[in-house]
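S.,

Sequence below, as promised.
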Amino acid sequence: MTDMDFTTISSGDLTARINPLGAELWSLADRQGREYMTDADPAFWTGHAPLLFPIVGALNGDSYRIDGREYELKKHGFARRSPFEVVEAGADHVLFRLTDGEATREVYPFAFVLDIAFRIEGASLHMEARVSNPGDEPLPFSFGFHPAFAWPLPGGAAKADHVIAFEQGEPQPIRRIEPASGLVLPEPVATPVEGHLLCPDPAQFEADALIWDRLSSRSLTFGAPGGTQLAIAFPDTPMLGIWQKPGAAYLCIEPWQGIADPLGFNGDFRAKPGVITLQPGESRSFRMDVAVLSAD
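The prediction came back faster than expected:
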């Protein structure tokens, strides 16, 4: 993949580069060229912002069941490794599309259309994914965003000074996963959020992601007080994961509709936590907005 294969959109204040493989946001830079996305250091994780479809997280044994038949599907699904078609593009916007085909039907026996639109307005990036059911039977699925933002953000503030400020207080317990299997452990644990503030620390991620399956907020800010911050809105997703490989220079802030299988889950896919179902002809949209609030 070369730079010529990427799609670039810009407002002048903000520029995004998107890889058509997975319709994955690889870069988000301001007018000064400062980068707000991961450095993708291969010592930690080479992902940037994969789209999670038709599952979020891992399946028990990398398999699931529909109407008594078993299918294999790797963690986070196949969209992130699938080439998307550019449907429409302009200087400040682009629309990508993925549809079902022979390869997807082998692991996911449903007709679908997954559109993902990127649009830049001023210092804000707007992303909207739309899942549609063009088939004649119900379509069960989950969807998630998985962007890895620079940590620390450009602007000079120390990594340890960065906080996540949730829109609302988040006193409810969170979920953790069993690192060996990637499945959700049965017992919730006490939240690390104090009031509406989370002070992320690499040690928090030694047991993998922090997962909110009962989230009150639909927006948050990430950054250092008095420094550059990101204002992130996700009005359509009721769950959230926050993750990094400890010590890496990124923090993933991941709005989700769905989570990994509970430990030991062997039920029908439709009963998997967070799976929603579209009837024939229906669609569902998931929006994520990222605004750069510069200290300048």
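The chain has one domain: 3-293.

Coffee later?
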